[in-house]
Amino acid sequence: MRALPFYLSFVVPACFGLAVAYGGAFTWLVPAVVFIAIPLFDLLLGHDVDDPPAVKDGRQFAYDLALWLWVPVQLGSIALGLWRLTQGGTLVEGVGLVFSLALITGSGGINVAHEMMHRKPRLEQGLAEVLMTSVSYTWFCVEHVLGHHRNVATAADPATSRYGESLYAFVPRSMLGGLASAWRLETERVERRGVAWTLADRRVRHALLLIVAYALVGAVFGWLGMVFFALQGLVASALLETINYVEHYGLVRETGPDGRPVRVQPRHSWNSTFRVTNWYLFNLQRHSDHHAWASRPYHQLRAFVDDSPQLPLGYATMVLISFVPPLFFALMNPRVAQADAGAKAA
After folding, report:
1. 214 and 229 in contact (C-beta within 8 Å)?
2. In Å, what is the CA distance from 63 to each residue of 21, 30, 67, 68, 189?
3. Mapping DSSP to helix (H, G, I), strand (E, B) and coil, where does residue 73 land?
4. Cβ atoms 228, 222 nearer than 8 A
5. CA dihedral 75, 235, 30, 93 (to 10 degrees)
6. Fewer C-beta within 10 Å: the chain N or C terminus?
7. Phi/psi of residue 293, each to 5°?
8. 341 band by pLDDT with thresholds 50, 70 and 90
9. What is the pTM of this model?
């Protein structure tokens, strides 16, 4: 029963089904759930600061099933959404459907892919690549695992937002910097292993996956379907980078005696313990534990209330606030200063 709340995420594609069926105002139901209903339930149900009980091997079937089910649900949602979008409708409906679909593939699918790409089984890593292909952002599988986790909270990490940097400056820097970093890291990996320009080379495999995906979408839904597929992927990827912006804003790893950044600690990522958002995002907000111990499954992540800087609000609200840089800086800059003081005292 402890796994059941994590199935809350499937409410969002269910709402998208209503949007496709009824159109009109229903096309904005998904954004209303994500940015209004879930934050309100966060305020009503408060925080979950309890650490989960130990589970043998760190995994249980019911928790994994929620991740595996997301793959066909997301692919089905994309097909349904592209079909509806290519049938015509008002501009407001079209924008609502694209944004809604991007919330499914971004806040849901990328998050599930993020969990799977950290796991060892090849099947789950493959499913992560499928999900990232569906948002045209395959290089995240390389850069996040090999680059971001190594360089987080340093100037070498394009996905770490700097103190005083606006969201609008960060997103293109992180997207382009992440692509360049992924290419470099994968080039080094395949040359070291002697598998360059084979299917084991993700520079090749990811390119082929994207070609196949767009060819399939074009064959079924035409050129307009390809345009909508690209648009929802762009919005979903921008949402991912916005969450990256919130997760790491202004935090910097200290330099050790050897002149290198110290080992990643919980204090090097922003954390949030709002209960409902963590159910919806598979504990993504327990980000401090994830970065300190990247292989820990989502349902085993710990709260680290006393050992990590805490966001004042859940991710959805913080994302909206980040769209207004002066408001975001007023809210977060004093907290960055407090986190820095705490790190120096540690």
Report:
1. yes
2. 30, 24, 7, 9, 32
3. helix
4. no
5. -100
6. N
7. -140, 80
8. confident
9. 0.96
